[in-house]
Amino acid sequence: MFGPHDDFLKHTLATADEGVEPSFEVLSAGTEVTLHDCGVLRIEPRIPSDTSLVISCAVHGNETAPIEIVRDIVRDLLDEELKAGQRVLFIMGNPWAMNIAERFVDVNMNRLFAGDWQNYDTNLKEVKRAAKLEAYVANFFAEEPTTVDKRYHYDLHTAIRGSQRERFGVYPFVAGRTLPAEQKAFLARADIDTVLLQQKEATTFSSFTSLKQHAESFTLELGQVKPFGENDLGRYTGIDHALRDLIAGEPLPNKPKRNVTEFEVCHAITVTSDNWEFFIPDDALNFTEYAPGTLIWRDGDEEYRVGDEPEYIVFPNPKVPVGHRAGLMLKAK
């Protein structure tokens, strides 16, 4: 399947700038395996499945722990040490950024989905890749058998900054939708005790699958960015076991075994001009709490202060271009 390369990860790194011809094989248990493209692998079990599952990583190329988790899951599926009980599409999103150990090469890929890639230079690798990934996912869902009645997408990440809450999920906004109990149970199974509920549509990969493909989707932040080979994968056993259970066909529990705290976005921080000022320290952790009245940013006569109750910050990053998001302010639900 991967030619001279030992595994899915090594093949993805080696073929980033090559044309990858689709290849197909059938495992001894009857599982069909299709390598569609560099970093895009499809598993179809012989037995009827009720779930279409997309597991993606490396939308940001330097977020290596999820990549290593996916590598190991794929290896065990191909070695038939892990049962293929559901159909799965595995994606390693940004092989060029992976090769240079950077978040991205030209443009943040996780701002290009839900069709937003059409607003960028389509000669850029990441723009082309976002369009192709949307198509692969759409085809995967469109070709599901009639037995399938559930669609899930888990987009795996690690964060640039440390966090007061090490692992958390981001649940994309879809009008009229609420977070199902079984998805909270999945988060709890994955040792994720916090979920951030978005309040408007976005252009992330998980937003695309939620909005356009009607999947239950999450961006999952699983820890902090580290180089390849420096991750303690023992810290990721929760998500690893939760994904393996799903792939094997184990049903999700009806309710979480532990409390999952919910936060809602109350303000999206955007860099509004070259004169924009940010008052959050560079070493602030995700989910740092700020008291009512705290000044967060100012641009001339415009400013944002924390409202009447405490707020929490996630993804603070003032070093983005004008017009781009520099963080989110949250309230506990």
TrEMBL record:
Swiss-Prot/TrEMBL catalytic activity: N-succinyl-L-glutamate + H2O = L-glutamate + succinate
Keywords recorded for this protein, A-Z: Arginine metabolism, Hydrolase, Metal-binding, Zinc
Molecular function, one GO term: zinc ion binding
Entry annotation: catalytic residues: 221
GO biological process: L-arginine catabolic process to L-glutamate; L-arginine catabolic process to succinate
Sequence ranges assigned to domain AstE/AspA barrel-sandwich hybrid in this UniProt record: 260-332
Pathway(s) it belongs to: Amino-acid degradation; L-arginine degradation via AST pathway; L-glutamate and succinate from L-arginine: step 5/5
Gene3D superfamilies attached to this UniProt entry: Zn peptidases
Domain of life assignment: Bacteria
Leading EC class: hydrolase
UniProt cofactor note: Binds 1 zinc ion per subunit.
UniProt EC number: 3.5.1.96
Residues reported in the UniProt entry to bind Zn(2+): 60, 63, 157
Keyword Zinc on entry: yes
Role summary: Transforms N(2)-succinylglutamate into succinate and glutamate.
Family: Belongs to the AspA/AstE family. Succinylglutamate desuccinylase subfamily.
Name this polypeptide is given: Succinylglutamate desuccinylase
